[in-house]
Amino acid sequence: MTDSNAIAPYQIAIPQHEIDELHDRIARTRWPDDLPEAGWEYGVPVSYAKKLADYWRTSYDWRGWEAKLNAYPHYVTVIDGQTLHFLHIRSPRKGAQPLLLIHGWPSSVVDFIEMIGPLNDPGSYGGDPSDAFDLVIPSLPGFGFSGPTQQRGAASVQNYAAVLAELMSRLGYRAYGVHGGDLGSLVAPELGRADARHVVGVHMNGPITIPPWDADPASFPDDEQEVLQQLANWSEGEGTGYAAIQGDRPQNIAYGLTDSPVAQLAWIVEHFKGLTDPAKELPEDAVDLDQMLTNIGIYWFTRTAGSSARIYKESADWGAPKESSGVPTGAAVFPGDFTLRSVLEKENNLTWWTRYDRGGHFAAMEAPDLLTADIQDFFRSIR
Asked: 379, 97 in Cβ contact below 8 A?
């Protein structure tokens, strides 16, 4: 396709030889050693990785998940030379509000699979039919079926917002809502700033809030001191190695992740281990194992490990103060999220705040029922 405003139907169809190659590569993995009794302190334990990789090779059903995804309408278009893949699911309810759902890293459109029905057709799921949404669920540029980014700067938060604003315009939506989680929680409010005339509300789960580098910790409320310390520990290296690598030399890590499925598996699984519900011992205790493997498989089959990591390098304004768009904004905070309400209120028109004791950072996968209800409640509050 060329950049001509055209929108074409798309279907996921991974060639069988690529699935066979995946299985062969897993079977021929050169396994490293690890330290006895180290657990997860040094990274993903070899014993755990072997067990998970064997399940991926022998039991997981890609074709079943491919069919599950293809049950919804997919499309592609080209914006500023970049292919953009997205699901566009119109509600059976006439006049439903358009809602853009934005994933983060290391995530994909698969995150929202369990939320599509209840958001799109709530009346069929025991909800209020008036809460229905027309859904637009894109693969961010550089991620998944959108394919690698082609130009320097294409992976910045600002460019993502501009691309998604153009997408909604091409679809004919003049008033729409936005939801984002993880890095999507940076893109969503940026879209509110870039397209404030058309964005009616911004909702986020686990918003990423970074206090100014010169901020005095004592200036923050008492109830934020624990989160502030957690953020300080995080910024000093407790689990942030992936961000440092991807923010410095994303191309270097791309070689291993694109060549070895077990490397790709471990790189993403470790992130799920660190950010899912702290009460859960293993990633598959917090999220559906096959859903997580589908997410990993998308990175593998599309060879977008490197390009998806570029946002860490090309969005260089982490922690810079943001101007509020004035758009009504809601936040849902789950266990393990490092969200500072005071920062969020300074940078947004915060009209909705909820905190949950179940779920985690990947709430769309961990607690889709809670996140769905929170999105519906927020947008109902600003109608």
From this structure: yes
